[in-house]
Amino acid sequence: MSRFSLLEYAENYSVLVQMPTGTGKTYVMASVVKWFLYFLFF
């Protein structure tokens, strides 16, 4: 996920991500959650 997308989320509180089958949607979502938790608690 690019920083541009994360900045869009910070301004709008919603972002649509469309990825084809087999491109790692679960991995990307887990990375986003990990990123938010890291900055929330540290």
From TrEMBL:
Residues 11-34 form the Helicase/UvrB N-terminal domain. GO terms for molecular function: ATP binding; DNA binding; hydrolase activity. Gene3D superfamilies: P-loop containing nucleotide triphosphate hydrolases. This is Helicase/UvrB N-terminal domain-containing protein. It comes from Segatella hominis. The lineage of its organism: Bacteria, Pseudomonadati, Bacteroidota, Bacteroidia, Bacteroidales.
